Amino acid sequence: MIYSLILSLFMMSFCALSFDKDFKTINERVPFEFVLMFDSLKGEITNPSEKILMVGLCKDLDNNLGFLPKEHIFMLMKNEVIKNVLEYKFSKIRQFEMTTMLLDKLEADFKKKQKDLNRFSQWIWRSILAELNHRKSLGLITTKAFSSRSFDGQKLTEALRFEKYLRYLLPWVDKMEGLTTEDFNELSKEVSWVILERLNERSLLYKKFATTAESDTKITLFNIPQKLIDLSPDAIKKMQDDQPVETLQDKSRIEKIKAQDTVNEIAPDDLSPLSDDVNKELEKKL
Predict the structure, then answer these.
(1) 233 contacts: CB under 8 Å, gap ≥ 6
(2) Mean pLDDT score of the chain, rounded to an integer?
């Protein structure tokens, strides 16, 4: 029991060092879709190596995009989120007939799953359901399986456009229908990494070639606490190897617990001082 508490304290101390509430987007400078993606990814990450990667990517985005006009940054980030969600490559998908019955089932599934989906996963669900409901309102999705050949005139033009769009939507419909909420959150996490990395690649190109679009003042997109930037080389190496970073406070605590273990050999029934101390530390971290 003592050793599990020691491990918990180590991990909480590490989490406080890497991701705290002050690592966040400056919301009025980035689009809503990106805020949802950022917050959800931050909440899903547990490995130290992923944490340091996320901080590094966000710092690069700050450096590379900060000199562009706000409206350029906003549109670039918004487009990259939407584009990389739609174009995400799935290894295998099932085929579906697009009907009002399928849409009704997805709506019902979302009501049941919503509370267990992270905010970015919820946004993906809502966005795709909104697109499908829009086509339903246009009369393109009916009780019969969708086929562009069933329409003519102006509706044929809309149907052909929707047919192309379904190539991007149906893979997501497959995952919405088939994955558990836990697996869907893991999928949205994978997509979030793709978005961050692709956005970072684009930002490097913008910085290199779009010098004429630079503004006079630098915009800060992320609030990154200084302690996440000023990690020692040894701490960074441990994080990259997914090892917890041991602080001086951690070392002191371990020595204290070792001393308490020596006392316990004499009086094993009296654990109240140690329990109280551990509980206080847990409360601080929580």
Answers:
(1) none
(2) 77
Return the amino acid letter for 2: I
Distance (Å, whole) CA 39 – CA 120: 8
123 CB-near residues (< 8 Å, 6+ apart): 33, 36, 37
Higher-confidence position of 236 and 4: 236
Q: Is 128 exposed, middle or buried (0-12, 13-18, 19+ CB in 10 A)?
A: buried
What's the predicted TM-score (pTM) here?
0.74
pLDDT digits (tens, 9 = 90+) for 143-189: 999 999 999 998 999 999 999 999 999 999 999 999 999 999 999 99
Contact (Cβ atoms closer than 8 angstroms) between residue 247 and residue 16: no
Q: Which residues of 252-281 are buried (b: 16+ CB within 10 A; e: fewer)?
A: ebeeebeeeeeeeeeeeeeeeebeeebeeb
Interacting residues of 25 by C-beta distance below 8 A, sequence separation 6+: 34, 35, 38, 39, 221, 222, 223
pLDDT digits (tens, 9 = 90+) for 196-222: 999 999 888 877 776 655 556 788 899
Task: Please give the radius of gyration of the chain, using alpha carbons only, rounded to the nearest integer.
Answer: 25
Q: Residue 3 has which token pair?
A: 């050793």
Residue carrying structure tokens 């630098």? 218
Separation CA 221–CA 180 (nearest Å): 33
Distance CA 24, CA 221 (A): 9
pLDDT at 272 over 60: no
